[in-house]
Amino acid sequence: MRYVIGVDLGTSGTKTVLFDEKGTVIASDTIEYPMYQPKNGYAEQDPEDWYNAAVNTIKNVLAKSGVNAADIVGLGISGQMHGLVMLDENNEVIRRSIIWCDQRTEKEVEEMNQKVGREKLIEITANPALTGWTAAKILWVRNNEPENYKRCRHILLPKDYVRFKLTGEYATEVSDASGMQLLDVPHRCWSEEICRLLDIDMSMLAKVYESCDITGYVTEAAAAFTGLKAGTPVAGGAGDNAAAAVGTGVVEDGKAFTTIGTSGVVFAHTSKVSIDPKGRVHTCCAAVPGAWHIMGVTQAAGLSLRWYRDNFCNEEIQTARLMEKDTYELMTEEANTVPIGSDRLLYLPYLMGERTPHLDPNARGMFFGLSAVHTKKHMLRAVMEGVSYSLRDCVEICREMNINVSDMMACGGGGTSPLWRQMLADLYGCPVKTAASKEGPALGVAILAMVAAGVYGSVQEACAAIVKTDKVQQPIEENIPEYERYYRFYTKIYPAVKDCCGELAKL
């Protein structure tokens, strides 16, 4: 039997899973790490935390499984997108990574628009200048930390730093590189024109591969740390959402998925480049060679529920521990006792600014309609509904672009919640399915590693053999008009307070 490893480098932690060639989980392990927020709107992590988590989870799954390292034919890495890792001439990390949800780069976005132009950015990179994406972060370091910028010799994305430590190769792949705003997305290569206009030295950028290509091999040093066999191939892998698409079988036209992780995503596969001229959704290269994807993103999906849990649900945390239940399961049971609309209480999930559809780093979260009748349970359900409304915003834009999102899968931690899936089914007006495997991105990059190793001939062939459907949540007809009323009202709130959010940011 042949085996592969999928490493999923997330914002909360890194999960590593060992699979056999049929996609069966043999062993898994997760290690968490912190996120640093030195100022409002800032978000950073230490790349060494990612590498240490990857090394130790790989070591742990090998120990748990008893699988011979010689039988592992490949490894793939999924990663949180857009993070900036800067290395000096000795390959030492220069500063903590500025990660995807950081919103400090508003001035740099203006600089990009001035130097390149909004229309040209969309034409080449398939997206408008964005505060959370990597190019603006590079400019921020140059503008605010010139000494650090002068020391920089290599720029990597989060998962690609781990790849470098495992293989010694400066490599990336098209799906993750699409989120740097330096890639010519239609042609799947670095854009010389964008780099020239932004005065970014292209020699600092990693070599670009397709996601199912071999990008390097595990070194003797990394083998000693991880327990892997030296020479084990490392596939390109994918950005977290592109990996989740492969792991849920969204590799053909007409298929889409919703994920509720730290962020929330609606992701649709397409065999042609399709760009929203308003820049409300993102177009990136898919992990499938010769294909692309459309992606709408809400910044604080699962993050909203985690924030609510950590600040307001100490009783539920203690009770769940005594009952040996998951806290989120208990919270969902409480939310299910509240009617649709949370008795006229709405929540805007803009804790970290917002991407789709507003592209506003100054957007802020809020409860709207709060009154003395509302309890903690009402607020809890309002948080879940508000995240669902923000995901419906993403679906609306996909449909406006004539992209089919009727074959919908759900993944991420929030996708395991039947209540949350039901909200989505009722708001989308279509069935919402889950995959039999819950491993999502880890399975996706394991599949890419299998294709790289020649176990399967293509990504589509591998997904057809491995990815199976589990649960199907059908829309409840009487719920649809109720949710529609509240969703339509929800869409009015942000435009009414947008200017106030901007003023608040300047106080």
User: Count of DSSP E strands?
Assistant: 24
Distance between the termini: 62 Å
The count of helical stretches stands at 18
| Proportion of helical residues | 40-55%
Strand order of the largest sheet: 18-19-17-16-22-23-24
Summarize model confidence as the mean pLDDT: 96
**What does the overall shape look like?**
globular
**How much of the polypeptide forms β-strand, as a percent range?**
15-25%
Structural class: alpha+beta
Low-confidence stretches: none
Q: Strand count, sense and closure of the main sheet? A: 7 strands, mixed
Report the radius of gyration as a whole number of Å.
Answer: 22 Å
Structure description:
This protein is of the alpha+beta class and 507 residues long. The protein is globular, with a radius of gyration of 22 Å. α2 (106-115) packs across α4 and α11 packs across α12. Strands 18-19-17-16-22-23-24 form a seven-stranded mixed beta sheet. Strands 3-2-1-5-15 form a five-stranded mixed beta sheet, sandwiched between helices. It has a two-stranded antiparallel sheet with strand order 4-7. It is built from 18 helices and 24 strands.
What keyword list fits this structure?
five-stranded mixed sheet, alpha+beta, 18 helices, seven-stranded mixed sheet, 507 residues, 40% helix
